[in-house]
Predict the 3D structure of the following.
Amino acid sequence: MTEMSANREFVSPKTKIDRPLNAYMLFSLENREQVAKENPELKNKEISKILCQKWRELLKPIKNRFKERALQIKEKHKEENSGIHYILYKFRIFVNNNHFFRLLSENRIFQEKRKAKIKTITQRS
């Protein structure tokens, strides 16, 4: 095992905490089944396009109801999971305090190696 992989601690899927749903996702969950029933021949990609178009055309008061619900869910999520941090690298990952620093240091190592590799390639040219 390499030094980096020996120190890595993975978060098991059971302990992973998802981000709270935003307003559009709440709207999509409520309406996806209905759109799918109305258009059984469409694939998920086309259904998503229809939902996106409906979201854009939605009246502000109705849209605001979804936004208020999303805000309530977000606040409740913050209260229940106060020690959780989300960071964005190549992909979104759930990190806890211990994992946060390890992943940051591993990301720095990766970036330094990548910069060195690019530097050697450009020096050769």
Q: What stands out?
A: The beta strands are 85-88, 92-95. Residues 47 and 53 are 10 Å apart (CA to CA). Residues 97-124 form the longest helix (28 residues). DSSP finds five helices and two strands in the chain.
